[in-house]
Structure formats: structure tokens, C-alpha cells
Amino acid sequence: MEEIIIRKMRPDDLEQVHDLEVVCHPTPWSVTSFRFELENRDAILKVAVSEGRVIGYVCVRTILDVTHLLNIAVLPGARREGVGGMLLRNVLDELKRLKPGICLTLEVREANAAARRLYEKFGFRATGRRKRYYQEPEDDAILMERRGDPPGRPYG
């Protein structure tokens, strides 16, 4: 794979981001949802770009003192190349600068062991479960959070 660049998402990325979303998620966000987040001053949206093509993205939004990882995806052909980790590291660096000590939360499918391992590598810990949170296919959500920089392992 060629060089991967992580940068802020722009309006002209929305078509590629949505195409990626449709490939990666059984209940994809609409372009309107991504546009709403792009216009939200409390949201951070990043894309991973390789050879001029969006191969991944991440979206987080802060509400008061909690930031929630709303969505993350990596093109299937680019998985296990470190793209998801690059996106998370970039967002965590920005959050550390903007809001030191912030709590970052997320939900992840119980069946998605690879994603759970990635989050654990970045210092997230399981805090709960939401029964039948996901549809198509039905699955429980594991609630995870990361507060500040966990002792002894800032991330990744």
C-alpha cells in the first residue's frame, strides 16, 4: 500500500466516505448525517487517504466533558494495515491537545473481536453492555471508555 495520509474530512470527501460506509456497515449513515457532523463545531472527522482515495474515516463528537466515537470504518482491502490505529491515534492526539483528560466512549459489536482488540490496544476498557443494540445482524453492544491517558500506556 502506498503512503497513507490522515487529514481532516472535507465536504468533497463525502461521496467517497459514504461509498465506504455502505461497504462497511449494514445500516450505513446517509451523506446528510456526515454533512451534519462536518458542520458541527464539536465534532472531529478525519479521513485516511491513499493514492488519492479515501480508505478510512473516523468521526467523534464532544458533548460537555465526554467525547463519543460515533463511527469508524476502513475499506476491507486496507484492513490489518494499521489504518484504524492511525485514525484513532490522530484523533486521540487532537483530543489530548484540545481537551486534556477527556473521556472517550464508544459502542462496539460484541461479535467484532478485531475492533475490540484495537480499542483495548488504545487503552479502552469495557464498562457495560447494551442488549440487542445492533440490527442486521442483531448483536449486543459492548460499551467501552478511555479516560485521559491510561497509566503506563498512552495509546497504541
Explain what you see.
It is a single chain. The chain is an alpha+beta fold and 156 residues long. It has a single domain, classed as 3-Layer(aba) Sandwich (Aminopeptidase), CATH 3.40.630. It has four helices and seven strands, in the order βααβββαβαββ. It has helices at 14-24, 31-39, 83-98, 113-121; strands at residues 4-8, 43-50, 53-63, 66-74, 103-109, 125-134, 139-147. It has a seven-stranded mixed beta sheet, with helices on both faces. A hairpin with a 2-residue loop joins strand 2 and strand 3.
Short description:
The chain is an alpha+beta fold. It has helices spanning 14-24, 31-39, 83-98, 113-121, and strands at residues 4-8, 43-50, 53-63, 66-74, 103-109, 125-134, 139-147.
